Amino acid sequence: MDPLRSSRSWLGFLMLAAFLACSSAFAEDDFERIMTEEDFIKQVVGKTLIYESGAVIIFLEDRSFTGGFSGSNVWGEWVWREDRVCHQMNIGEKRYKVACKVPQILKKTIRFIREDGSFYGLAKIR
Question: What is the DSSP string of 18-72?
Answer without folding.
Answer: HHHHHHHHHHHHH-EE--SHHHHHHHTTTSEEEETTS-EEEE-TTSEEEEEETTE
